[in-house]
Amino acid sequence: MGTFGELFGSPAAVSADAPGRVNLIGEHTDYNGGFVLPAIIPQRTRVELARRADRRVRVWSANVEPASRWAEFVIGEESPTRTWVDYVQGVTVALRRRGYALVGVDLRIESTVPLGSGLSSSAALEVSVARALRSACDLALDDVELAMVGKWAENEFVGAPTGIMDQMAVSLGQPGTALFLDTRTLGFERVPIPPSVELVVIDSGVRRRLVTSEYATRRAQCEEACRLLGVAQLRDVAMTDLPKIEALAEPFCRRARHVVTEDERVLQAVAALRANDPGQAGELFYASHASMRDDYDVSAPPVDALVEIASSDRDVYGARLTGGGFGGSIVILARAGSGSRVAARVAERYQAECAQRATVLVP
Ligand code: ADP
Ligand code: MG
């Protein structure tokens, strides 16, 4: 695996990195103007960079197939390629659109965040590249604007319709804390994760098909629920308005109920973490999972089984499907110091009982 010097012939001038993230609670709330509570994970994407005298950008990534590792484009002439380099081009376009002056650069990318596993390697890539460019080109860009640059790259250049959570979590997250984010105002607070707990993330190995269209369907159903309720966003519906939601037709009733109760669970989880009450936070994890399974219909039987298995482990406070769903990973709130043993026990039982391969992503 080439070093920067071996790849580009001279040493890097700048390096930057950014972590992956896992969402603790607050799922499918972001596009409804609601609350989310992601935390960064230990895995990171690292970018090394040297400025060039021209406007070319040469990029190399250690994390793709050998034949696809190199890519090249020219600042001001970016155009989508439908490959991984679009995330990098998207960042340079987003920065230029905001008026930042860029120069050509050589970039070496290497990540320990697994790609495409729901831990947001995409945001880690966008944010680490933007950070490297910020320091190489002396850009007066704060961390919130940097997150918006990443989101623009992903939504408008790559063409993935995601909310702002990933980039905010990755840009603003700090170790030992979760980021309590209001996706409507982008207001945020860092909430300490109590020293009594540890996060575990296990990939179920299940990936349902048609994820993109299912996601679009959920979004459209939320919009229809808003229309029926006469509100701009489901964020505007209070818990005291639940009877109005119950009166909606299927499936709008269940979709809206998930979103409104999930927002409430985020607020309660923040309070539970602040009160150092992992038992209460864990109960909220289970309730969130049930809501995603029964009301939002984004779980899958093997994922439910994985949560069930985790729930019977003596060192587990709570567990739930994390991320958009349709398969994917679960996040477990485990007793501090027990994380790797919990992960091994749960993964082993899952494989034995469900004949599915689990991958431990954290720790
Ligand atoms: P996730 O963000 O959950 O990991 P995504 O599908 O949103 O999954 O993003 C994964 C994509 O991001 C990869 O397929 C690749 O195109 C790009 N990507 C992320 N990290 C890297 C990397 N280190 N090197 C090259 N491409 C990367
Ligand atoms: Mg992503």
Notes on the protein architecture:
- With 363 residues, the protein is an alpha+beta fold.
- It folds into two domains: 186 residues, Ribosomal Protein S5, domain 2 (2-Layer Sandwich); 168 residues, GHMP kinase, C-terminal domain (Alpha-Beta Plaits), CATH 3.30.70.890.
- Helices cover 41% and strands 24% of the residues.
- The chain is built from eleven helices and twelve strands.
- The protein has a five-stranded mixed sheet. Strands 10-11-9-12 form a four-stranded antiparallel sheet.
- The longest helix has 23 residues.
- It is globular.
- 50% of the residues are buried.
- The mean pLDDT is 96.
Quick rundown:
The chain is 41% helix and 24% strand. With 363 residues, the chain is an alpha+beta fold. Magnesium ion (MG) binds next to helix 3.
Might you state the CATH topology name of the largest domain?
Ribosomal Protein S5, domain 2
CATH second-level architecture of the largest domain: 2-Layer Sandwich
Order of helices and strands: HEEEEEHEHHHEEEHHHHHEEHE
* Largest β sheet strand count, sense and barrel closure: 5 strands, mixed
* Small ligands present: adenosine-5'-diphosphate, magnesium ion
Low-confidence stretches: none
β-sheet strand percentage: 15-25%
Count of alpha/pi helices: 11
**Which radius of gyration do the C-alpha atoms yield?**
21 Å
Number of strands: 12
Overall residue-averaged pLDDT value: 96
Percent range for helical residues? 40-55%
